[in-house]
Amino acid sequence: MPRRPSPTLTEAELRVMEVLWRLERATVADVTEALGPPQLAYNSVLTTLRILEQKGHVTHEEAGRAFVYHPLIAREAAAGSAVKNVVEKFFGNSTGALALRLIENERPSNDELARLRSLIEQYEER
Question: Domains in the chain, ordered, with CATH?
Fold first, then answer.
């Protein structure tokens, strides 16, 4: 039985999406050329774009003999989906637990601390 496609992006899919978000529209050759190291083969990029299309993240249109791909989701939406997935899988659906883990691992900047204090005050007022 085939595996159900993941709603989140794999590392290879994210690399391809980063190129599409930057270029907005690109052929397989464009994406292959724009990818930094490690370079992916043309067929690997094509397969990845087809998977992304099946997942509903990209679409294509025909331009002569080539397909021109463009993203259907914004980078922010993909990031939100990835964070939601992490929160569900590792933090029992608790965004607070994720926030605490992040703060425990690395001290926020003074600006970030001020923003956190402001958010806490807003939540306490409600």
Answer: 1-90 (1.10.10.10)
